[in-house]
Design goal:
This protein is mainly α and 306 residues long. Helix 6 (90-100) packs antiparallel against helix 14. The longest helix has 28 residues, at 154-181. The radius of gyration is 19 Å and the shape is globular. The protein has helices at 2-13, 16-27, 29-51, 54-58, 63-86, 90-100, 103-115, 123-138, 146-150, 154-181, 189-204, 215-242, 245-251, 255-267, 273-292.
Length: 306
């Protein structure tokens, strides 16, 4: 069942980029992120309280998981929402989304040193193919060269950098959550969501953002907070800890394509051929990485006692 949860999480996440961009345009990136994660965190923590013993189980989780994975979770979300909100156009949002979805391949690559998975020789070519897709997306349909790329306005490069940092953090999170809490009971995601919302709310106090609220914005906010913002992360956490990790992570290579399609429809943007090729390269690279990592499960280390 946990493996199915992982599949659902991927489908839910496919709506994140497009819907979140709509919210950041209406509310501002920090305000939108704070609202999404405060709602997600409060609802999730309320669910733990109503579950009976849920809160106690959270604080019985291994400390490395709560602190390490919690920090990676917060950094990932902060980087992702800033990348979406700071993108100069909706076209760049699609590009940022493709870079963010390097995480499936990175999850598989990081499983080698962290979970002691075995890799075949074509892991490196797979990663190179995925990174080629990222470079093509960043080239914005033009012939890529480092000279022209570095000559751009530095502000336009920040969303790309944030998306890349986020992809690294999520690849690490997915592996360390299994290493540190595979056999533990309880779910720490609601606490991570609440911590992210509180951090963004504190940052929001230092920034001025104009926000426009209406019924449509509130409806999208509730959807993003509850479905891709809460359920998807809880489902993914369970899949990474107890499901067939390599199978779920392999299915996630479809996420860039699904996310790009949903984002294009929702934002009414149709990217050029180069961006679709970039998307295919990222997917292909993740698939090669999947084929290069053996499925065999490693015995999880015992959870440290508190």
């Amino acid at each position: 069942m946990e493996t199915v949860f992982g599949f659902l999480a991927i489908l839910f996440w496919s709506t994140t980029i497009g819907f979140s961009r709509g919210l950041t345009e209406a509310l501002g990136p920090v305000t939108a992120g704070a609202a999404i994660f405060l709602i997600s965190g409060v609802v999730g923590c309320a669910g733990l309280v109503l579950a009976g013993g849920g809160v106690r189980k959270v604080f019985l989780l291994p400390r490395p998981y709560l602190i390490g994975c919690g920090a990676l979770f917060v950094i990932y979300e902060f980087c992702l929402y800033l990348a979406i909100g700071l993108s100069a156009s909706r076209q760049q949002v699609i590009e940022v989304g493709i870079i963010n979805y390097l995480w499936p391949g990175l999850t598989l690559a990081f499983s080698i040193p962290i979970l002691k998975k075995r890799a075949r020789p074509w892991l490196v070519p797979g990663m190179l193919v995925a990174f080629a897709g990222v470079f093509l997306a960043m080239a914005q349909g033009e012939s890529f060269s480092w000279v022209s790329f570095l000559a751009r306005d530095r502000g336009s490069l920040i969303p790309y950098l944030l998306a890349f940092i986020g992809a690294i953090c999520w690849g690490l999170y997915s592996n360390f959550s299994r290493r540190w809490a595979a056999n533990a009971r309880g779910v720490g995601v609601p606490l991570f969501l609440l911590a992210t919302g509180v951090l963004m709310a504190l940052v929001r106090m230092g920034f001025r953002e104009s926000s426009q609220w209406d019924r449509g914005t509130v409806a999208v906010l509730i959807y993003v907070a509850v479905v891709p913002g809460l359920l998807a992360y809880v489902f993914w956490d369970l899949a990474m800890r107890r499901g067939r990790m390599i199978l779920v992570a392999s299915f996630s290579y479809l996420t860039p394509l699904l996310s790009t399609l949903v984002s294009c429809l929702y934002l009414r943007v149709w990217p050029g051929r180069g961006l679709w090729v970039a998307c295919v390269l990222v997917i292909g690279g993740a698939l090669i990485c999947k084929l290069s990592v053996e499925e065999g499960e490693q015995r999880a280390a015992p959870s440290p006692s508190r």
